[in-house]
Amino acid sequence: MVEIREATTKRLQKAFLDFPLKLYKDCPYFVPPLYGDEKKLFRKDYVYNDTCETVYYNAYRDGRMVGRISGILQKAANDHEKRIRFTRIDAIDDPEVFRALFDAVEAWGRRLGMEEIVGPLGFSDLEREGLLIDGFDQLSTFEEQYSYPYYPKHIEALGYKKEVDWFESQIRLKPDYDWSLDKMSELIMERYHLHWGEAKNVREFIKKYADAFFKLLDDSYEKIYGTVPFTEGMKKMMLDNFKLIIQLKYVGVILNEKEELVALGLCFPSLGEALVGTGGHLYPTVLPKLLHAIRHPKVLDFGLIGVAPEYFNRGISVCIAARLMHMLYDDKIEHAETNLNLEDNAAIRNLWKRFDAVEHKKRRSYVKKL
């Protein structure tokens, strides 16, 4: 028999945080989130508490923890649909455990008057989202969650159906690349009277572009699956994280004649390899490896690409891709990881065909009527 306990005490909350670290302890593909960041879930002043209601459940059998799940009511995303999100689903290979966990979070959703459950989705698309359904032998990025191959089988057996899929690609510079994108980029920039923005350092970049940066993301991502508008708390959290890992040479912003931001591309040094096996704890022995990964990356993770709506379908993404080409070449980066691209985002998926690209991972968001 599986017993479900809501994680309302410090002890149960710690068990909720620790469980995936034990489940994936020997998995070479699992990249943990930072433990300190996850602990903030249970703080009263957590950044998402102003727009969300949450619940956290642990599953036990014979006194041993065998799974966990969280439910989110993201009110900022519920303008047109009565749905909750499930997230942080981790469990042993046992259908009874999966059923008990999902029964608990579904019942919570019904008590709130909701009609659907969808996920895995976090509080916003700044969080890990989507269930891995292909690419189980690939290292996860720091931005995304690994899960074992038995997850889809157990979740689908409970009546969950596909809502959307995402693809992730690994891209490299083609050995015989002819730099044709540079010429195309120059023509597009000239046609629309655009230029690249500049900053001397990260502090100046944030001062000059932060407000426009978030407005552009809200505008360009407004209709994209799973997104929610940025709150002031989300902005602060994102900027605090930027300051720790961002390098200006991996950022590109495009401005128009009025110095208005019309497009941006953002890459991060990959932290995945440096964090494998750490449990997300920044021990003194971990910090040198992590700092080296930030300062001398072998792999780049794509963070964000945004284009102002009035510049959609004008080829601006070609300019961002040309910039990326130089990142891969100039710094001798081994490859880049795109993270999640929606299956119907033909423009961005076709863009990667200009590279030596392989779609090596696939993720899914499920939906079920309550």
Notes on the protein architecture:
With 370 residues, the protein is of the alpha+beta class. It folds into 2 domains: 3-167, Gcn5-related N-acetyltransferase (GNAT) (Aminopeptidase, 3-Layer(aba) Sandwich); 172-361, Gcn5-related N-acetyltransferase (GNAT) (Aminopeptidase, 3-Layer(aba) Sandwich), CATH 3.40.630.30. It has 11 helices and 14 strands. Strands 1, 2, 3, 4, 5, 6, 7, 8, 9, 10, 11, 12, 13 and 14 form a 14-stranded mixed beta sheet that branches. The longest helix is centred in the middle third of the chain and has 20 residues, at 202-221. The protein is globular, with a radius of gyration of 21 Å. The model has no long low-confidence stretch (mean pLDDT 91).
Mean pLDDT: 91
User: CA-to-CA gap between the ends?
Assistant: 24 Å
Q: In this structure, how is the largest beta sheet organized? A: 14 strands, mixed
Share of residues in strands: 25-35%
Q: How many H/I helical runs?
A: 11
**Helix-strand category:** alpha+beta
> How many strands in all?
14
Q: Radius of gyration from the CA trace?
A: 21 Å
The CATH architecture category of the largest domain equals 3-Layer(aba) Sandwich
* CATH fold node name of the largest domain: Aminopeptidase
